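Crash report, auto-generated. Payload:
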Amino acid sequence: MKNVTFRIGGVHPHDSKLSRDCAIETLPLPQTVYVSMAQHLGAPATPVVAVGDKVKVGQVLAEPAGFISAFVHSPASGTVKSIAPRADIAGKMVTHIEIAVEGDEWAEGIDLSDTLVTEIPADRAAVLEKIKKNGVVGLGGATFPTHVKLNPAPGSKAECLIINGAECEPYLTSDYRIMLERTKEIIVGAAIMQSVLGGCPCVLAIEENKPEAIQAMQKALGELPYTNIRVQQLKKRYPQGGEKQLIDAVMRRQVKSGGLPISVGAVVQNMATALAVYEAVQKNKPLITNTLTVTGDCLPLEKQHNYLFRIGIPLSAIADYAGGVPEGAAKIISGGPMMGKAISNMDAATVKGSSSILYLSYDATKRGETSACIRCGRCSDACPMGLEPFLLNRLTKAGDMEGLEKNAVQDCIECGCCLYSCPANIPLLDRIRQSKVQVMGIMRARAAAAKAAAEAAKAAKQ
Amino acid sequence: MTGTIIWTIVILAGLGLLLALILFWVAKKFKVEEDPRIDEVEKVMPGANCGGCGFAGCRAFADAAVKAPNLDNHYCPVGGNEVMKKVAGILGYEVKEKAPMVAVVRCNGSCANRPATNIYDGAPSCKVKAALYSGDTGCAYGCLGCGDCVSACQFGALTMDVTTGLPVVDEQKCTACGACVKACPKSIIELRAKGPRGMRLYVSCVNKDKGPVAKKACSAACIGCGICLKTCTKGAITLEGNLAYINYELCKLCRECEAVCPTGAIHGINFPKPLDKEAVKARIAERNRKAKEAAEAAKAENKEAQQ
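Recovered output after restart:
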């Protein structure tokens, strides 16, 4: 098999998969869990329980508040203590439902057995409804509601379903562990999505630094009755797990600026999402658990873990259970070291998309002294979206929003390759991220104004 | 030899004359008619081109002011009333005098009052920091301390205080152009009336969290207790979202609110004497007692009248 990779940009950080041999352990429930209403991309969900209500595991706590939104379920059984704003990992206030845990009583209709159900339901609408009702969102990072992605707009057809097992971020091993331990479930999940999309070919894309996962997948594929699913080995390169990069690597197609993957006939889902889809459709189990890696360069190997956690457990509770914050940790990151965000609030609750607690030492995280840009062009070479980060940085400093939009700042995927490759240590991504928010705000406002104007014109015509 | 020199001079002189005539003709033919008052107005402007008036520069302001029917929406904060009177004189308009303004930093979250909960090592810019997270202290509203306001100020009126980590306004240099107000992503800086002899009262906090949360994050935070609101006899104070605000147009600078504020979030500055909190509190208590007595007497009277 030929190894493939994407064609523009990219970097080669050391993969540091320290916790790769740690089997997944189940994390016990703490006394209290806090369930965020904003665990997905789009509008925060609306709570449907009241303070004092008794809830069971898997019971609906909140309903979607719009087309792009998702159901939120209770990760624990107990009493709703409060529904109030609480700080998330960035310190932003988000409505959380606080549940005092009492026992572990599950809601009815959830299959808790381990038996593998390989038969794929034929009713497409029913499967989509199950995925939606069970609150499945993309677990690759963006937490985009899965049922929306699996239901492409009329006129567009999925030609290839890519299951993303690149896990190109250094340190993270949660996807790797589920690929080893939940292999067959993932493949069934992929097959379900494949059938929902009309039976297009399905590719399980895995980077070459995970040979065990590739072998396990190939072996399981041989044992399962599905056709048109294959494993594709990828060259190790960051940010291969980016949706557009993966499409380029597997299908050799480029998604145009501002376009969606479906415009080139691709649908990309994460390995963990495939598992969540399996559980939602075959077991009727809502998305209330995910796998999380506790790792870092300053954490001794015996203290590294991969946990199956219930969503809503505070990060601090997980850190305590894993043996506390190690000495020498200068930065704690949620997500990988390249794209993850530093956690400013350890009391924040885990969400559907939580993938790691990463302890990094001072040496691993320190920023070198910034010096002047020497126009070496390394950032432009590294940018997987073909942007010119040094130019975007300059335009941001000048506040030139039009120039930024013209130079496609909105296409930035915030992978951090520019910052990683800059020899002058210029905080490129910091500034680009800020101007991206501003430019996207301007674009949204313009689109809304255009829509309102079009509607007004329509009303006037009538 | 002499002939060559003469010819050269004649030809060049002729050429010069011809081109001069062409230029003269072009200047006549394509002359842009411009109101001469624009130049006059521009001459009296401060020439800072700071954009504080809302226009691109002093020339743009002059142009707009000449074309405008009145000066209601045109005011140069840098030049103030003096310049505006001159402008009005040139244009023959009335000018509404405005009280001189000054930039006020409404955050007292110094390192001592508001301990840091984490260390920020990103790009040194408040805008970047604000886009990333709530900040390196427990307060999600307060000053981020990266000095975007300082770099926005063209007049050198703002400096960062190294000990407190907060910006300080030099009142002599501040022209109230509003550049810092626009630069601050947390909307901490406000333009307020300078006040008589610079005396003014303001709430030095923008935290809208509930009292205990705000207090935990910063010992000098406004906790929204509303005591100032009850004390103020002028109705100058409003309380919105757990945050008090003093309307400088109604405030009579009695300093009673400053005396009763439990966290010291209300600041009075440039007053000649330091505030004697106890005396002011005693005054308020006395007034309240009298009011209570009067209310009781009125009640009794009412009762008698009813009987």
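Post-recovery validation: Residues 277-306 of chain B form the longest helix (30 residues).
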